[in-house]
Amino acid sequence: MDLPAAPTAEKHHRRLTEINPERIYVEGQMKSMKSYAQELREEVRNKAKNITLGKRDIDMQKSVIIAKNNYEAAQAREDTLRVAINENSKEAKRISIGIHRGEYLSANWQNKFDLLNNIEKRITEIEIEKKSPCAFPFSLLPAHRNSR
Hints:
The protein is mostly helical and 148 residues long. The protein has 3 helices and no strands.
């Protein structure tokens, strides 16, 4: 079996020329690979951008949900406090009315008590006058009137 002869310089030179079909094919494949690699880089960059934007959107939505929940909880607490304040206000008014009524009744009772004492005192004076031998009405004397 004969071994193929080593390529001569001329054959070697022909392989590297610009019109060599193998060279044109390889260079075309390399351009195609570079173009494909560039497309992949762009695709990865776009996906990374979309992932970053999506994460930011999710974080913002999460923040909005948390803020909304906090607001609703505060609103519910405010409503509860408002009901309690209204109930306490009604109770305070009721108690205040009771205090005023009690003071009125106490003053009215004291007035009636003083009137009763004056009537009893007058009855006692009249009984004493009745029993006295001289039926002089001491109650008509100016000094006696001022002592009451």
